[in-house]
Amino acid sequence: MKAIYFIINPQARNGYSQKVWAQVEKELCDLKIPYMAFFTKYRGNAQEIVHSIVKKSKGEKIVIVAVGGDGTMNEVVNGVVKYKNVITGFIPGGSGNDFSRGYHIPKDPIAALKLILRQIKKEDQYVDIGRIEHGSDEAFFISSMGAGFDALVSKEANSSRMKGILNRLGLTSFVYVYFLLKNLFTYELKTVEVVIDGKTHLFESTWFVTVSNQPYYGGGMKISPEASPYDGLLDVTVVQKLSRVKLLFVFITVFWAGHTRFREVKFLKGRSIGIQSQNPMDVHVDGEYIGGTPLKIQACHQVLPILKRGIKNEEEVKELTSNDCN
Ligand SMILES: Nc1ncnc2c1ncn2[C@@H]1O[C@H](COP(=O)(O)OP(=O)(O)OP(=O)(O)O)[C@@H](O)[C@H]1O
User: Which residues does the UniProt record annotate as the domain DAGKc (predicted)?
Assistant: First the structure.
């Protein structure tokens, strides 16, 4: 059996992830499965832990499992992407858990662990990821990235003390609704240039642009219903020219993908995407704020082996060539 390492964010969902880990650890002990566990101490620490684990692995195939939310998974992905000998798993312990929704990971920690233990014995399943170049930095996302109003809301919500309090009360979504309403009437709409595979699209009065690798974001909103992490493509959603009140209405419909019926919501697909506007827009990557536009995004086809349920439709996986981002 490959060595299994767990990286746990004890702060995810305001400490709920510790309860998740306690259940997982008990199951591992009951099943007599050897493992090593590391707890993150601060933002960015999961990525550092990945590097130190891999250094000691001497090139042997290992499994690194993130226990937490989408931010923790994002950090682990950004750590493992440079190494060929790591397979990544996930046990949901966060607030939004869009990764597990999009990649069909069970919500129940024990079921998620059992899935990992079953899949370890099978052939590796590779998924696409997105690579962002902003300035001299690079960042990877596994679920989605967004520029504009949504990134501003997620930046303010994640840094507010209110998130912790509402998390404890099981009312996490309310913090996003609060910051959405707070910014709704003051947000300055932008003219945004989106270049997809060399073709320039100009969008006026734009609220936000998201680039998705799987359908879900923002804690269960089906922003990009057609997005697939197997097709070598990224799905672009642009929301523009909506009145402030209508934006609220459209926002609610995203939970059941009703927004696809509005002409103000545009859907495009591509492999290489550039986003820029005259005034920079805030940017999030898998729900974590990383800075502002301009930026370039590239789809990296089948570069990341992950432990998840089998793909429903194998034909979805198209063989593309020379699209490896490493
Ligand atoms: N020990 C720690 N103390 C404080 N923050 C941490 C710690 N470890 C990790 N973090 C940061 O906590 C943030 C939130 O983590 P994560 O996204 O996993 O949980 P969440 O916000 O509850 O879930 P979700 O993103 O699914 O809504 C991330 O930015 C992560 O880097």
Answer: 1-136
The CATH fold assigned to 134-301 is: Tumour Suppressor Smad4 (2.60.200)
The set of residues, in sequence order, having a beta carbon less than 8 Å from that of 165 and lying 6+ positions away, is: none
Closest-CA residue, ligand 1 atom 17, reads 71
User: What pLDDT is recorded for position 321?
Assistant: 40
ipTM reported for the complex, 2 dp: 0.96
Residue nearest to atom 18 of ligand 1 (CA): 69
From the list 166, 238, 163, the residue with the least C-alpha distance to 202 is 238
Distance from C-alpha of 218 to C-alpha of 139, rounded to nearest angstrom: 19
Question: For the chain, which residues make up each domain, given as ranges?
Answer: 3-122, 134-301
Cα(168) to centroid(ligand 1), Å: 15
Which atom of ligand 1 lies closest to the CA of 287? 25
Distances in whole angstroms, Cα of residue 115 to Cα of each of 122, 266, 307: 11, 36, 8
Residues within a 6 A CB radius of ligand 1: 9-13, 40-43, 45, 68-72, 75, 94-97, 287-288
CB atoms under 10 Å from CB of 232, counted, come to: 18
| Atom from ligand 1 closest to the CA of residue 172 | 27
Residue 322 clears pLDDT 60, i.e. is over it: no
| pLDDT band for position 317 (cuts 50, 70, 90) | very low
Distance 192 CA to ligand 1 centre (A): 30
CA of 185 from ligand 1 middle (Å) equals 29
Nearest to 316 by CA among 127, 122, 104, 118: 127
Task: Give 161: exposed, middle or buried? Use CB within 10 Å, 0-12, 13-18, 19+.
Answer: exposed
pTM: 0.91
Q: How far, in Å, is the centroid of ligand 1 from the Cα of 158?
A: 9
Class of domain 3-122: alpha beta
3-state secondary structure of 215: coil
